[in-house]
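Re: that backbone. Tokens:
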């Protein structure tokens, strides 16, 4: 599958609009979650509530792109508020897996980039409870793998 070509100026403009709309989208998302019985408070522990909300939406067959986008924004903002970092548009390297996507950088000691959109979509495809937190924990506290063959 060939990746689409991106017009850098247009993508940067869309990214700036994404950032500009952030507060309004998140306020609506948090209000809708509260109306459905899910309290989202931007704490790290609220990611468990976000997972339950995503699952509830999926089971009602109403998980659309705008919901996934809003859930991803919420996820990214929790990480940013708890651990720091900033939103960044991955558009420098067309061969990069996250090319053309808004990502979070600077939230972990390594130079890892988090795509909240991809992470939310992976969770929706059946990842276990606690997945959203584990992704961040793994990025923030990577384990060294011992690849030596056993004697």
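Recovered sequence:
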């Amino acid at each position: 599958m060939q990746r689409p070509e991106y017009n850098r100026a247009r993508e940067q403009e869309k990214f700036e609009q994404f950032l500009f709309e952030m507060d309004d989208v998140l306020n609506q998302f948090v209000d809708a979650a509260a109306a459905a019985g899910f309290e989202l408070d931007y704490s790290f522990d609220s990611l468990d509530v976000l997972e339950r909300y995503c699952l509830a939406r999926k089971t009602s067959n109403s998980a659309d792109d705008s919901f996934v986008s809003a859930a991803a924004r919420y996820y990214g903002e929790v990480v940013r508020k708890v651990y720091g970092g900033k939103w960044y548009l991955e558009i420098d390297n067309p061969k990069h897996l996250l090319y053309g996507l808004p990502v979070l950088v600077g939230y972990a000691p390594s130079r890892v980039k988090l795509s909240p959109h991809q992470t939310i979509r992976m969770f929706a495809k059946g990842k276990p409870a606690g997945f959203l937190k584990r992704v961040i924990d793994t990025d923030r506290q990577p384990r060294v793998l011992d690849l030596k063959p056993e004697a």
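The helical segments are 8-20, 22-35, 46-59, 65-83, 116-124, 131-140. The first strand starts at residue 86 and ends at 89.
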